[in-house]
Specification:
Elements lengths: L1 H27 L2 H12 L3 H7 L6 H11 L1 H21 L2 H33 L4 H60 L1
Helix pairs in contact: 1-6, 1-7, 2-3, 2-4, 4-5, 4-7, 5-7, 6-7
Length: 191
């Protein structure tokens, strides 16, 4: 039970940390500034766009600014590199949560198996005349499986939610990145 207790604490810690992270990210979103950035880029006011977004905390704006700054070298690579960094930041600690989801039921089953081995050992020692000793041992052994499954189930829901948030963020960065590429392509073709 102690390893399962540790798994539950680790899972809960990661879930709380990631929930706070996403609340903060949503607070930092600034769609008005993002639209202003895209408008300034369309007008060719790159220095003004960079200056206006210098202290932006919105992950999409940070990605677009990286593309604007490196537009003369490789816009696509700059956007990809910045988006990868943002996604890596969003994925932080999720592998730990994924491991807890997988590990908890396995530890629960291990606890059950060792408990059943103990119960059968007890059966060999005391005999069949005291079946309540064996059934109590098996019942206690099954508690670990139930606890492990509970940890996994309660961790899986937030894990999938966080993964869907990352996918949504990646799609949004890709959408604005494509818009930025189209703007620069149009400027290149017209100028």
């Amino acid at each position: 039970m102690y390893p399962l207790l540790l798994c539950s604490v680790v899972s809960l810690t990661v879930i709380i940390e990631r929930a706070i992270f996403w609340i903060r990210e949503e607070k930092n979103r600034d769609r008005t500034l993002l639209n202003e950035l895209m408008s300034l880029v369309e007008k060719g006011q790159f220095d003004e766009a960079k200056k206006r977004t210098l202290k932006a905390r919105d992950y999409v704006i940070r990605t677009m600014v990286c593309g604007v700054v490196h537009r003369n070298f490789s816009l696509r690579d700059a956007l990809q590199m910045s988006a990868d960094e943002e996604i890596a930041r969003m994925r932080r600690y999720l592998p730990i949560l994924d491991t807890m989801i997988t590990l908890s039921p396995l530890l629960g089953i291990l606890g059950t198996v060792t408990g059943i081995i103990y119960s059968f050992n007890m059966l060999g020692t005391v005999g069949a005349e005291h079946p309540q000793l064996i059934t109590v041992g098996i019942a206690q052994a099954l508690i670990t499986t139930a606890f492990g499954l509970t940890i996994a189930i309660l961790s899986l829901i937030p894990y999938n939610y966080f993964v869907s948030k990352i996918e949504k963020a990646a799609l949004e960065m890709e959408k604005y990145g494509t818009n930025l590429e189209i703007i620069f392509e149009r400027k290149r073709n017209s100028g």
